[in-house]
Amino acid sequence: MTNALIVKAANLIRNGDIAGAEFALVSLAETEGDYALVAALDTLPPKDLLAVIREYDTSKESVVNLLVTPEQFARAVVMERLYGDHSHVRLRGMVNAVLFRDDSQTGEFIEAIGDVDGGCEALIDYLSERDEEVVHFVTYDTFNVNRTEEGDEVDKAEVSDRDWKELTWLLKHEHPDMFEQIWPVLKKRMKERLRREAELEMLEQQQLDQADHAEPSEQPPRKTTVKPAPGAVDPGEESAL
What is the pLDDT, as a whole number, of residue 106? Predict the structure, then answer.
């Protein structure tokens, strides 16, 4: 029965019926137990497992997300990069949903992601929209870019948001080897982003200056109407004489 359900789930995934595939996998857990589902997930290709995980709905609990192992999830995270989602919204959603599902396993998931090729690159993408705060955190141990004094450091309790702040804190303080691979790349990307933004701002200012100094367009000559002198007779009118 297990093999049949796996084949069914894989076919549903390939046909785009992700909800149906997840239902089939959940049915396996209900009939044969959680361990059977964990074993089944290990036989799914990473791209099929990812298809189920990335459809995570925060309004409901996902049995698959609750039971996926760190190694299985790490492979799925790396596969996510192949989707080319430049916003990384799906990546952040699935990482938050699985990494912070159980505090006792968060470290294991982070380590598993770091152990797989492309794992650190995936976490760089995850943190890409917070590059400035992360780089600031490297030196000052606070995400507030306006604070640089001693005593501004934040502890874990202050950043337990089950999101990017908590993950960054964990990387720096509990997984420093991984963090050393991540933050320099973010710093380089940040500098490139700021350079592009400055160039764009300069270009826009130049265009505004050119528009301000442009010669006014020539206006067509105004027609002047010559009024006849008082008492003069319009030649177009017939004489009354």
Answer: 95
Q: State how far the Cα of 15 lies from the Cα of 11, in Å rounded to an integer.
A: 6
| Alpha-carbon distances, residue 75 vs 46, 122, 172, 185 (angstroms) | 6, 11, 23, 21
Measured CA to CA in angstroms, residue 151 lies from 117, 140, 142 at distances of 37, 9, 10
Cβ-proximal residues to 177 (8 Å cutoff; 6+ apart), any chain: 114
Helices (H) and strands (E) in the chain, counts: 12, 0
Helices (H), 100-214: 106-115, 119-126, 131-140, 164-174, 176-213
User: Whole-angstrom Cα distance, residue 2 to residue 27?
Assistant: 10
* Whether 162 contacts 100, CB under 8 Å: yes
Q: What is the pTM of this model?
A: 0.77
Within 8 A by CB and 6+ apart from 217, the residues are: none
CA dihedral sign, ordered 110, 112, 114, 118:
negative
- What DSSP letter does each residue of 82-98 carry, written as one string? GG--TT-HHHHHHHHHH
Please tell me the number of Cα atoms within 13 Å of 224 on its side-chain side.
3
Q: What is the mean pLDDT of the chain?
A: 84
What token pair was written down for 195?
């350079």
